[in-house]
Design a protein that fits this description.
Strand content: over 45%
Largest sheet: 5 strands, parallel
Number of strands: 20
Strand order of the largest sheet: 1-5-9-13-17
Shape: globular
Oligomer: single chain
Helix content: 10-25%
Radius of gyration: 18 Å
Number of domains: 1
Distance between the termini: 52 Å
Structural class: mainly beta
Amino acid sequence: MHIVRNASIVLALGLAFSGAMAGEITDSTVMSTGAVNTSAGFLATARQNIGVAEQNGKITGTGVIVNGAVNTAAGFLSTATQSVGRATQNGKISNSMILGQGLNNTAAGFLSTATQEVGFAKNNGTVENSTVIANGASNVAAGFLSTAHQQIGGAQGNGKLKNSMVIATGSVNTAGGFLSTADQSIGVAK
């Protein structure tokens, strides 16, 4: 009897912890206006996550509306990552609307990296029956060997983009400096 009770407790705790690891945003509204995140100095890292679900992440029946979010990392080996309405590790965005307006992500300095993702599902990602709109999204990496990655409305890692609409008006992705690289993906499945 004692063994059965202990096994039941272990099983219950295991289920509780496994459930806690799965990120899920369901039937909700996430709104943000004027959010600012900054990190400056050697090896500076700035991460801004708004409406993000991770670890088997799911965004379902949800509206994520972000206006004027600014994320900046400045310094040698700086990294700036801005994510709006993103789902990772078997990520799925379904029956949702992701709207980002005036988003700014900047990494400045030698070997800097700027990554901006709006309405994007990763690692066997799926975006279906959803609308992703990014108006005036700006992603900039400046400096020697800088890298700028911008991904709007899509999925990667055997990704699927189904029955969805992606609008990216005035989206800018720039890498400036010797041996810099800029990579922009809008409405892609890869």
